[in-house]
Amino acid sequence: MFSYIHAILNSENPKYIVLQLLFIMAIIYLVIKWYQTLVKPFITQEGFHQNEAYIIKRNQDIYDDFYTEVYDELHDTEQRCQKELIQIIKTTEPSTQNSVFLDVGSGTGYTVSQLREAGYRAYGIDKSNAMVEHSEKKYPEAEFKCGDVAEPMNFESATFTHVLCSHFTIYHIEDKKTFFQNCYHWMKPNGYLILHLADRAEFDATMPIDEKANAWKPLQRLYGIRTTETNVEFADYTYKATYKFPSSNSAAAASAAAASATAATATAAYVVLTETFTDKQTQHIRQNEYTMSMESIDTILECAKKNGFLIHAKYESTKYGGKDKHQYMYILERPL
């Protein structure tokens, strides 16, 4: 049998090409299945149980006690933040004596805690009360504020040398003009505003956990296959996340624009992220739906420039440990 397979694989006869390809694909499939047996034991997050058969939460309502518990694993918070902070510190050269950081959309508080451990003064702000309470319990020595960055009175003028807006946070902010104006007001001269931006048409539209859970990921990236869906098996529930990119004149975009309180967002390029948690035992479903204002990189940078910022540096995420060449770190500077 082995000699027969060997003969087929080494044959130059055109009629064996299909068999050769099928054999190679079978080998790849077996390798992937073996890899999955190694990876899946690490996906052990538990905690999804609800009495209702179906619940849907939208936008800020997503961030409740349950989501704060699963957030870090879904978003690969620790590794992602560590890689970003190394690049930020390397580029901006902060000092523990003079530098003061603000993490916008501070989430579970990990970035703030890492900066504090490194000797810097660092603070977090997040719109979610559940996230802030979680952060305060986990890092009681750190300071977090529940608030909206659209409100200029959250901080005093010239407070921060660094403002961080990472991991798609900028796209959760509809009124970007006000955001940039407030950052300019809160920052010290020659301070740095760090933005995470992505190419809407090209970025890897899967959740960070997909790197660990999806055995096909290396091949998808190698051949430039863009997927917009993430599927993960947890201990007691399944998780699915899907990005949708409605056109500007679609019903979904029109509905989102109509719900907006500001005219500025009516022309925004909306992206809808839907997360579905299904309890394996009861089949009860929790669905999260978040609508993001994902304008082009050029549009966002132009808004920043009009409100006083200069581009200091730009890094493709692959330069600081990321895997997606269509996501970037922009370091903007507030001039004197």
TrEMBL record:
Domain Methyltransferase type: 102-195
SUPFAM superfamilies referenced in this protein's UniProt entry, alphabetically: S-adenosyl-L-methionine-dependent methyltransferases
Example GO molecular function: S-adenosylmethionine-dependent methyltransferase activity
InterPro entries linked to this entry: Methyltransf_11, SAM-dependent_MTases_sf
TM stretches of this protein: 16-35
Protein name: Methyltransferase type 11 domain-containing protein
Record has ATP-binding as a keyword: no
Annotated Gene3D superfamilies: Vaccinia Virus protein VP39
UniProtKB keywords: Membrane, Transmembrane, Transmembrane helix
Naturally occurring in which organism (per UniProt): viral metagenome
